[in-house]
Amino acid sequence: MTWKPPKRGHQSTRAIPAGILLILACPRLYSSDVTGTPLYFAVGIPTIALILGMIGNGLPFNALSARISSLEARMLALETSVNTRFDLIMGRLSDLITRLGVLEDRSRRP
């Protein structure tokens, strides 16, 4: 079966993919003579390269995840420290308010 161009004046409604045209135009290039070791090399080497590339691309994300985790721990420690200091300041402020209340009571006495 060979490809025939459409007749003049007739527009084809289907496009023929370029890959099929190449197979039809050059059948010797696309024969199934590649078997055994050349086939394994032709398929295996790109597959191994793809897998190694995927693993290599995943490593920076793992390092980034570890850095984000350590940053999260540092931020949590900082938040705890700020909360502790804020509670101390609020305690001192309540003591100051109490002392000022005592001073006001003393100043109002005759």
How would you summarize the topology of this molecule?
Layout: H1 18-25, H2 37-108
Task: Provide structural commentary.
The chain has 110 residues and is an all-alpha fold. The model has no long low-confidence stretch (mean pLDDT 81). It has a domain at 73-110. The termini are far apart. It is built from two helices and no strands.
Please supply descriptive tags for the structure shown above.
single chain; 110 residues; mainly alpha; 2 helices
Shape descriptor: rod-shaped
Mean pLDDT: 81
Largest sheet: none
Gyration radius, to the nearest Å?
40 Å
Q: What percent of residues adopt helix (DSSP H or I)?
A: over 70%
Beta-strand percentage range: under 5%
Q: Give, in order, the helices and strands.
A: HH
Query: What ranges have pLDDT less than 50 throughout 5 or more consecutive residues?
Result: none
Distance between the termini: 120 Å
How many individual helices? 2
